[in-house]
């Protein structure tokens, strides 16, 4: 309420400390980093994703084809754009069906577990849950939610469902810049990130440092640690103003997404380490030879960077 006081011209919340006694009243992420790796059987490297483009206008069948090509080329995940919901040119149920077919075909041909972030965000909690249930019935491993536009109550309800039914939960942060972009008013994203970790989500978008979206390196790494680690020491240089103890709450995997491509791979693997999803949209689909070669290029670049690091 204090943000609306007319005595204040502007107000900015940079950080807050959440006492362990309070954080333990939340379930946190439905599964967490280690359980996700066990589910996917993928270890020792970052995960690769791709946001399907164009974000609007594809039919469900063509959308499913793009998903298949990317996953067949070597990516671990593909993603609904936050704007993709249930429009006249592609209703959500049709999209879910074609995407499920693409998932199973790619899995059969590669021998790897694949996923697609099926956007369950909807106008009501009931509709959101209906979409999540349908995704689970199709055998999809992961669903997606816009936690700021959907709201924290809806997000926590979905997190409970995902935990009980073995679904991973990918969180998109659409609308965050309305709240955190201005440096003299609003709140910093690290506050929203802490709130999200308590509300529940296995992935959350966290900026890229090197891409098209704003984000300073040290500050970004500060809230990435707040998402992943159990205990984070105060470090003002990295924007961590309070020591935070999450006790045993599972960690959230940060997603680097927005204007990145294969040339950024060495920097991204060095900045984010293994526990991250590196998500290339146009950086995959913009390949001159097509979607599948774009996915192959990203996978080869990632494995080359990981091998060079390990040697």
TrEMBL record:
UniProt xrefs under InterPro entries: RuBisCO, RuBisCo_large_chain_AS, RuBisCO_lsu_C, RuBisCO_lsu_C_sf, RuBisCO_lsu_N_sf
Pfam families: RuBisCO_large
Compartments where found: Plastid, Chloroplast
Its EC number(s): 4.1.1.39
GO biological process, one term: photorespiration
Keywords assigned by UniProt, alphabetized: Calvin cycle, Carbon dioxide fixation, Chloroplast, Lyase, Magnesium, Metal-binding, Monooxygenase, Oxidoreductase, Photorespiration, Photosynthesis, Plastid
GO cellular component labels: chloroplast
GO molecular function: magnesium ion binding; monooxygenase activity; ribulose-bisphosphate carboxylase activity
SUPFAM superfamilies according to UniProt: RuBisCo, C-terminal domain, RuBisCO, large subunit, small (N-terminal) domain
Reactions that this protein is recorded to catalyse: D-ribulose 1,5-bisphosphate + O2 = 2-phosphoglycolate + (2R)-3-phosphoglycerate + 2 H(+); 2 (2R)-3-phosphoglycerate + 2 H(+) = D-ribulose 1,5-bisphosphate + CO2 + H2O
Entries under Gene3D superfamilies matching the protein: Ribulose bisphosphate carboxylase, large subunit, C-terminal domain (3.20.20.110), RuBisCO large subunit, N-terminal domain (3.30.70.150)
Keyword rRNA-binding appears in the UniProt entry: no
Subunit structure: Heterohexadecamer of 8 large chains and 8 small chains; disulfide-linked. The disulfide link is formed within the large subunit homodimers.
Primary role: RuBisCO catalyzes two reactions: the carboxylation of D-ribulose 1,5-bisphosphate, the primary event in carbon dioxide fixation, as well as the oxidative fragmentation of the pentose substrate in the photorespiration process. Both reactions occur simultaneously and in competition at the same active site.
Protein name per its UniProtKB record: Ribulose bisphosphate carboxylase large chain
Gene: rbcL
